[in-house]
Amino acid sequence: MTKPPLTLYLAAPRGFCAGVDRAIKIVEMALQKWGAPVYVRHEIVHNKYVVDSLRDKGAVFVEELDECPDDRPVIFSAHGVPKAVPAEAAKREMIYVDATCPLVSKVHIEAARHHENGLQMIMIGHEGHPETIGTMGQLPEGEVLLVETVADVAKVDARDPERLAFVTQTTLSVDDTIDIVAALHARFPKIVGPHKEDICYATTNRQEAVKAMAPKCDAMLVVGAPNSSNSRRLVEVGSKAGCAYSQLVQRAPDIDWRALDGIASIGITAGASAPEELINEVIDAFRDRYEVTVEMVETAVENVEFKVPRVLRVPA
Ligand code: SF4
């Protein structure tokens, strides 16, 4: 039977970012250095496939430090942790390694600097996301006010409206955040913040590629996990940019083929924590059913790399 033709647009950049790559390497190095088990507080990156393959090598994933024994190393995930977590690990004299993405650590430093200068902090982020919890946890409880939407800005109860600063989660929608930042500036003209926002290069670049790709596609699939903030933002960006059927899939078996009936083109991208193997698995599933012509939609070339410490240093 002849297969129907399909143009498969492939976004570039897509998938793994430098922070995710570094965090995974840190777990692998820890397993080499200390042997199994090595504990990891929270999914090292939000991807089940990555977590399962590290688990097979001897990593044990837990949500809280009190689930780890004192005598095994623990790694903190790429999303960052509240200050109280390494403090507790140090108190228990545990070996711990911080795999927080350097771009998240940069936001932690910004927040601490503004706090030292006596400014009250506002964080633009998603409630309950580990990165938001980690960044807010850099300062004493109650010192950071969370804003999730433009509507939230009107509800901010500032100690002194003239002495405010803001930081953002790194994986937000660029466009939504521009609106929230504008609302903050309109209500608090003296608010201090980063030049644009703290959204990282990987999030920005993946959203840009989706914006370029979405109008060409009959449907779009984002390979990523439901708890991956940047993957979910790609789905939203795809819908807003003109591809009404934009869906998240973790793996090829998740594809709803019935919903894709009759399409002539598909767009494929992946969140920053989705490995290329899974993207290839999805592409192969389309090749099985269609005569696929791949067209790259490249909007940026990335060559960011974060150094992984050659020797994992144990904090004093
Ligand atoms: S998405 Fe951005 S902030 Fe998050 S790990 Fe990747 S580079 Fe770092």
From TrEMBL:
<feature type="binding site">
    <location>
        <position position="46"/>
    </location>
    <ligand>
        <name>dimethylallyl diphosphate</name>
    </ligand>
</feature>
<feature type="binding site">
    <location>
        <position position="228"/>
    </location>
    <ligand>
        <name>(2E)-4-hydroxy-3-methylbut-2-enyl diphosphate</name>
    </ligand>
</feature>
<feature type="binding site">
    <location>
        <position position="273"/>
    </location>
    <ligand>
        <name>(2E)-4-hydroxy-3-methylbut-2-enyl diphosphate</name>
    </ligand>
</feature>
<protein>
    <recommendedName>
        <fullName>4-hydroxy-3-methylbut-2-enyl diphosphate reductase</fullName>
        <ecNumber>1.17.7.4</ecNumber>
    </recommendedName>
</protein>
<feature type="binding site">
    <location>
        <position position="79"/>
    </location>
    <ligand>
        <name>isopentenyl diphosphate</name>
    </ligand>
</feature>
<feature type="binding site">
    <location>
        <position position="79"/>
    </location>
    <ligand>
        <name>(2E)-4-hydroxy-3-methylbut-2-enyl diphosphate</name>
    </ligand>
</feature>
<feature type="binding site">
    <location>
        <position position="170"/>
    </location>
    <ligand>
        <name>(2E)-4-hydroxy-3-methylbut-2-enyl diphosphate</name>
    </ligand>
</feature>
<keyword id="KW-0408">Iron</keyword>
<feature type="binding site">
    <location>
        <position position="129"/>
    </location>
    <ligand>
        <name>dimethylallyl diphosphate</name>
    </ligand>
</feature>
<feature type="binding site">
    <location>
        <position position="273"/>
    </location>
    <ligand>
        <name>isopentenyl diphosphate</name>
    </ligand>
</feature>
<keyword id="KW-0411">Iron-sulfur</keyword>
<feature type="binding site">
    <location>
        <position position="129"/>
    </location>
    <ligand>
        <name>(2E)-4-hydroxy-3-methylbut-2-enyl diphosphate</name>
    </ligand>
</feature>
<dbReference type="InterPro" id="IPR003451">
    <property type="entry name" value="LytB/IspH"/>
</dbReference>
<feature type="binding site">
    <location>
        <position position="79"/>
    </location>
    <ligand>
        <name>dimethylallyl diphosphate</name>
    </ligand>
</feature>
<comment type="function">
    <text>Catalyzes the conversion of 1-hydroxy-2-methyl-2-(E)-butenyl 4-diphosphate (HMBPP) into a mixture of isopentenyl diphosphate (IPP) and dimethylallyl diphosphate (DMAPP). Acts in the terminal step of the DOXP/MEP pathway for isoprenoid precursor biosynthesis.</text>
</comment>
<keyword id="KW-0004">4Fe-4S</keyword>
<feature type="binding site">
    <location>
        <position position="229"/>
    </location>
    <ligand>
        <name>isopentenyl diphosphate</name>
    </ligand>
</feature>
<feature type="binding site">
    <location>
        <position position="129"/>
    </location>
    <ligand>
        <name>isopentenyl diphosphate</name>
    </ligand>
</feature>
<feature type="binding site">
    <location>
        <position position="228"/>
    </location>
    <ligand>
        <name>isopentenyl diphosphate</name>
    </ligand>
</feature>
<feature type="binding site">
    <location>
        <position position="230"/>
    </location>
    <ligand>
        <name>isopentenyl diphosphate</name>
    </ligand>
</feature>
<feature type="binding site">
    <location>
        <position position="229"/>
    </location>
    <ligand>
        <name>(2E)-4-hydroxy-3-methylbut-2-enyl diphosphate</name>
    </ligand>
</feature>
<feature type="binding site">
    <location>
        <position position="230"/>
    </location>
    <ligand>
        <name>dimethylallyl diphosphate</name>
    </ligand>
</feature>
<feature type="binding site">
    <location>
        <position position="46"/>
    </location>
    <ligand>
        <name>(2E)-4-hydroxy-3-methylbut-2-enyl diphosphate</name>
    </ligand>
</feature>
<feature type="binding site">
    <location>
        <position position="228"/>
    </location>
    <ligand>
        <name>dimethylallyl diphosphate</name>
    </ligand>
</feature>
<feature type="active site" description="Proton donor">
    <location>
        <position position="131"/>
    </location>
</feature>
<comment type="pathway">
    <text>Isoprenoid biosynthesis; isopentenyl diphosphate biosynthesis via DXP pathway; isopentenyl diphosphate from 1-deoxy-D-xylulose 5-phosphate: step 6/6.</text>
</comment>
<keyword id="KW-0560">Oxidoreductase</keyword>
<feature type="binding site">
    <location>
        <position position="273"/>
    </location>
    <ligand>
        <name>dimethylallyl diphosphate</name>
    </ligand>
</feature>
<feature type="binding site">
    <location>
        <position position="229"/>
    </location>
    <ligand>
        <name>dimethylallyl diphosphate</name>
    </ligand>
</feature>
<keyword id="KW-0479">Metal-binding</keyword>
<feature type="binding site">
    <location>
        <position position="46"/>
    </location>
    <ligand>
        <name>isopentenyl diphosphate</name>
    </ligand>
</feature>
<keyword id="KW-0414">Isoprene biosynthesis</keyword>
<feature type="binding site">
    <location>
        <position position="101"/>
    </location>
    <ligand>
        <name>[4Fe-4S] cluster</name>
    </ligand>
</feature>
<feature type="binding site">
    <location>
        <position position="17"/>
    </location>
    <ligand>
        <name>[4Fe-4S] cluster</name>
    </ligand>
</feature>
<feature type="binding site">
    <location>
        <position position="200"/>
    </location>
    <ligand>
        <name>[4Fe-4S] cluster</name>
    </ligand>
</feature>
<comment type="similarity">
    <text>Belongs to the IspH family.</text>
</comment>
<dbReference type="Pfam" id="PF02401">
    <property type="entry name" value="LYTB"/>
</dbReference>
<comment type="pathway">
    <text>Isoprenoid biosynthesis; dimethylallyl diphosphate biosynthesis; dimethylallyl diphosphate from (2E)-4-hydroxy-3-methylbutenyl diphosphate: step 1/1.</text>
</comment>
<feature type="binding site">
    <location>
        <position position="230"/>
    </location>
    <ligand>
        <name>(2E)-4-hydroxy-3-methylbut-2-enyl diphosphate</name>
    </ligand>
</feature>
